[in-house]
Amino acid sequence: MILLSRSAVLALLAGFALFTAGCGKSSGPADKASDAGAPKMEADLERTLKEQPGFYVFKTPADLPAGLKWEDGSELPEFADPNAKKGGTFSYFISDFPRTLRTIGPDATGGIRPYLLDYVEPSFIAPHPNVTNGGYAGLAASWAVGPDGRTVYFKIDPQARWSDGKPLTTADVVFTLYFMRSPHLNEPWYNDFYTKNYQQLIVFDDHTFATVHPEKKPDLAIRFGGWVPYPRHAYQDFGPGWLERFQWRETPKLGAYELKEKDIEKGRAVTLTRVKGWWAENKRFFRGRFNPDRYRLEVIRDPDKAIESFIRGDLDFAPLGLSKYWYETLPDNHPEVTSGRLIKFKFYNQTPRPDFGLWINRAKPVLDNRDVREGIQHASNITLVCEQFFRGDAVQMQTRSDGYGWRMHPTITARPFDPVKAREYFAKAGFTTQGRDGVLANAGGQRLSFTITAYSPAMRDLLTILKQEAIKAGLEFNIEVLDSTTGWKKIQEKNHDIALAALSRSAELYPRYWEMYHGSNAYTDAYLKDGKPTPIATGSTPNPQPKQIAVQTNNMTMTFIPELDRLIEAYDKAETLEEIKSLAVKIEQIIHDDAGWVNGWQRPFYRGGYWRHVKWPQAFNVAQSRDFEEFFVHWLDVDERKEVEAARKSGRTYPDGGVKVFDQYKAQ
Amino acid sequence: MTGRFSFLRLDPLTRRKLQRFRSIRRGYVSFLILAVAIVLSLAAELLVNSRALVVRYEGKWHFPTYGAIHTGREFGFDYDYEVRYRDLRERFAADPSGRNWILLPPIPYDPLENCYPGDTFRPRPPDWAKRHLLGTDQINRDILARLIYGFRNALVFAGAFLLLTYLIGISVGCLMGYFGGWFDLLVQRLIEIWSNIPFLFVVIIIASIVPAGIGVNLGVLLFIVVLFSWTGMTYYMRSATYREKARDYVHAAQVLGAGTPRIIFRHILPNVLSTIVTFIPFTIASSISALTALDFLGFGLPPPTPSWGELLRQGTSNLQSPWIVASAFSALVIVLVLVTFVGEAIREAFDPKKFTTYQ
Prior knowledge:
The complex is a heterodimer. By secondary structure, chain A is of the alpha+beta class.
């Protein structure tokens, strides 16, 4: 799911309270009045097609290479329950009222986007959530990888329809790539992604097209088939100023749910409605999914209140990730749980974990010393946080990239908390004198004191614990918890000493390293070719004294190791999984030895609670789901809901309730 | 400004006002309670602390309360960080020879430390045996210790706030009243514009941008709050100075050749002081609640600084552990009520129309 990686760029820790109230922008559906003066998108599109004939290529079906092996994923197992009942209104919450209904552009990565795009809209090829590197037919009825290994051919499902009844065709595909690459989009990340990773779009007829990519990849089709087109006919006035015009506009959807204007209660709730006679309703991988008729998302800003609201019966589901909620707010012996009316569950999933950890800024004085970083590794008591703060629910990550289905490195493990060892490393770096407050200092009187920057209030307690432990090694941590935007900006501009941060990662076959570890993402002048900066390590000279810090990148450790960069470049060009795996081992080793990232924690499951009228497939959910509704496999039993409501009044209990643990996908 | 406040010499009028204050029982008792609490909180290290008051170890005396840390190794443990005095007490108690002994403060906990090492982090109810008189918070810190140290922080904040706002407010207000004319008009307009800037938003924006470090942050926080709070005082001072300016003694001073600062601070100010004094308790109350509010919202002092606002926030998000919210809330209410009682009494005692009473 390539589109999801935009959220990787803006990954924010879950659960922070937004202080701002409601939605500040007051544009409304009245925008349509201004359409007369709006730019004509078609004219600009025509001009673009003419200007870039090398990118937009039009051919005939006769030009399709012979002997293509078309796939549709139909050999893969179904993952939803085809007997799921349709109907009912599912009640859940979002933590902030959406600031826009766009799924792209400023403010579009908010809490509503999964319901407008990520969870709901089918992509051309959808990654199978139970089969690694498996894909099933979404918008594409079938697809094939060309003989050159760089081209993916798609046949659009002729039944695919927008929610306004218009069929999906290659005209929409052409528009979408034009849209993604357009300077009017105001989204440099998408511009860059669709320019760098897409070399050509070939259109054969109304329902057949191909995309050409720069490198062969073992997961080419899944990697580049995971995008969702935009409706050309609804974007006729796309162009400069489109962000404002589309701020609250309802656009046609391909997925099972749409959000109608009348269902937006400003500041309070939004309700999705299931598309009547949805085109994919009975298709193999879509039947039994997207079951409730209506999906009401109430705005509840305080997660504590959301849990209370759930226990009161106003919501059908509540996430209980925090230990506090699981053990104290709704303990196993809570009357609603023991009565079996309310069920708590814990589901072990298999998905790449957000890389929580301490990102040490190597560009700062003292922290540029590897011994100091080694010392910090041994002075950070993540184990204590996992065992006593998360109460054993979280475990420390062993490598930078856990959860990809195989170990990135066979032997690397996180360094244990060990004040004695930490002091040895600090002594090697010259920090030998213990001050009056227990903090080590060097001969020059410099104290071993660093600030940890975090961007979520949820991290306060955890940082306090780390601080109290670090002093045992003579290390002082100052805590700086900023609001999410300011904190994230500070880290992205590399003004931190140490950052407590995480990037969310989408379900890909193998991790990315370039964003986080390539020297060109640390310094813009990391490499010189003919005296000029270049972003590529291979064939150029590393700059011994780079000065230009690369801001707004994810290299938050400011790592610049020429040897590592060459490996990363080879990794990004690698064509087979074996090659990728063997390079990953070398990369992980260098990253580990450099000690710039203190392994944080990961939780191998998600958990929550639901009322017993919410029903699930046999396996509860799919292996690669990151939360309960990502694949929309749950449904409501409307009759049972009435029964449960009556049971709450009468005090009737069910013998089969309690706490359910689904550990079939648990790593051994 | 000259360094001496002449009203401290207790002229008969002031003495009578103080007597009247003492005779208002509710205010006076509140004042005494507050005074004791303030003095105790200033000596909090001796009462609530994980460091021992006195240790006698191998024939040597140690007084660790103030001063450098003593490592575990100095007392025969195998670690180089600060010795855990409660462990030491246990070890000494187990030693039958009785050569070594230790005296811990009545509440042997630090406001920052994890009181249940090796156990999970969760709020625990009051436990008299363990001397957690008000229980612990969600990361096992003693609530009473955090309340007491938080009280002290709030007082320091309130004191500094009072001093700064009054210094600026009184100076500007007196100058406005004394000079009058276009200066008065201009500054009044400036103040009107200034006081229309939404204070809370500016505080939130600035507090989230400036970098941490307790010293810096307390200073910065104080600076911002003062920046938006000095204006209130100017109005009172302006009108009081206007009134006093027209009196004969001011004219006399002018004729004698006294300079402007001397007239304002030596002659006029002592005569308008009674107005200021009545405001002090209310200013303190409002600055404590401002700091608490900011901490509650998460824009106050950086963690892990003990603060009431932080405790209150923890309490409201842990309603299943009512002792947290109850402690913080009661402490806040008690202190604010006491301060208000004192304020009322002062106002009554310093009221020039002494037969009027405010109830």
